[in-house]
Amino acid sequence: MADIRLEGVGHSYDGGQTWALKPMTWTWQSSRAYALLGPSGCGKTTLLNIISGLLTPTVGRIFFDDRDVTDVPTSGRNIAQVFQFPVLYEEMSVYDNLAFPLRNRKYPKKEIDERVRQVSRLLGLDHLLGRRSRRLDAGRQQIVSLGRGLVRSQVAAVLLDEPLTVVDPALKWTLRSKLKEIHRDTGHTLVYVTHDQTEALTFADEVVVLNDGAIVQAGEPAELFLSPAHEFVGHFIGSPGMNMLPAEIVGDVVRVGQADVGLVHADDADELPPGPVRIGVRPEFVEITGAGRSPGVPATVTGIDRMGAYDLVHARVGEHPLIARTEAGAPYQLDSVEFLHFPADRTFLFRDEVRCGSL
Ligand code: ATP
User: Fold this and answer.
1) Burial class (CB in 10 A: 0-12, 13-18, 19+), 164
2) Per its UniProt record, what InterPro entries does this chain match (predicted)?
């Protein structure tokens, strides 16, 4: 296990005109489980392939601890990588597929058997060990492929590229918790690529959010949810994502339309100059209060989704849509005007998409 350090690493597929990955400096710390989260095309696979050596970065150097591996091929990096589309030996049994990476590296027979049985038990494959892989459905094949990536105990890192995409959604929950168990047991440095925030938040010690080839924020799941540093993180994490409304700083007060919603608190020591901002507040924290309570922002109810465990109340503030998550059985009427309250510390101010303060 090693710290994996990227120093000014970037990649362009078209001779430097556009960057699939903008030059970045970043360290993946040894033994930590990371989720690399971002929308399609943001550079996740490119970054993973640079770590594993399938791709040489256009600029920058990559280090495993103090060893510069930039020019070391994949075979010399001791990385286990699992691709979105399973690469299995179809005529081999599940057992032999799982044992393959260990046999290849001449692990002792007893250890091979122990590791294969341990991983297959955790991933629910133990009753399928004798089955040929081509006779498995696509979801099971993906799980075998995942198992192959996890079976070696001594690797510099395990890289998983969307490893559960075709697995049954109910089974995904179980597998993610098993994956955590395996990670606790082996202490691998693990990078798990996904565009699914639930997968990222439930699995990782640290979530790294990538957008447009750059890391926009990294932190523990709760930190990204409660304290997004960028509008993109607010939108992308949370379901539904953070509400954004145009607002105005007037003196030391933030105003939405005609309503004062609270006092300005700048994130850094400098005061925030007056002018337009956007305020971000998650549906979970919007409070719908009775008329007359101040401050309150008038909003017209446009719809209610009854989700079972909770309701999502859709509303319009002026021309802008907003969603509030309430207890099930929200008693609001369509087209009624309700008053919204945005709690201090849970409501953030953004300028040029970057967070600059809070209420
Ligand atoms: P997805 O979730 O869809 O797999 P991703 O986040 O993994 O996306 P990448 O596959 O790393 O994104 O792609 C990043 C950017 O680089 C995209 O704009 C993509 O079109 C471009 N790209 C990726 N591979 C190549 C290639 N071989 N040649 C040219 N452009 C490429």
Assistant:
1) buried
2) AAA+_ATPase, ABC_transporter-like_ATP-bd, ABC_transpr_FbpC, ABC_transpr_MalK/UgpC-like, Mo/tungstate-bd_C_term_dom, NA-bd_OB-fold, OB_MalK-like, P-loop_NTPase
Give the neighbor-by-neighbor strand order of the sheet with 21-28: 21-28, 4-11, 59-64, 67-68
Q: How far apart are CA 74 and CA 50, in angstroms?
A: 10
Closest CA relative to residue 194, chosen from 248, 122, 146, 264: 146
Mean pLDDT, contiguous 10-residue spans, the chain (359 residues): 93 94 97 94 96 97 96 94 90 96 94 95 94 94 94 91 91 89 89 90 92 97 95 94 97 93 88 93 91 76 96 96 95 93 94 95
Cα–Cα distance measured from residue 64 to residue 71, given in angstroms and rounded to the nearest whole number: 12
DSSP letter (8 states) at residue 333: P
Closest-CA residue, ligand 1 atom 8, reads 41
Q: What share of the chain is helix, strand, coil (3-state, %, to 5)?
A: 25, 35, 40
From atom 28 of ligand 1, which residue's Cα is the shortest distance away? 13
Contacts of 146 (CB under 8 A, 6+ apart): 82, 123, 160, 163, 164, 175, 179
Nearest CA to ligand 1 atom 27: 13
Assembly ipTM: 0.97
Q: For residue 2, give the nearest of 56, 67, 75 by alpha carbon.
A: 67
- What is the rounded CA–CA span in Å between residue 13 and residue 28? 24
Q: How many CB atoms lie within 10 A of CB 210?
A: 25
- 206 has which bridge partners? 34
Residues 6+ apart with CB under 8 A from 10: 19, 21, 22, 23, 24, 57, 58, 59, 60, 213
Residues whose beta carbon lies within 6 Å of some atom of ligand 1: 13, 20, 38, 40-46, 195
Please state whether beta strands 297-306 and 310-317 pair in parallel, antiparallel, or not at all (unpaired): antiparallel
Q: How many other C-beta atoms lie within 10 A of the C-beta of residue 335?
A: 8
pTM for this entry: 0.91
**Nearest ligand 1 atom, CA 38:** 6
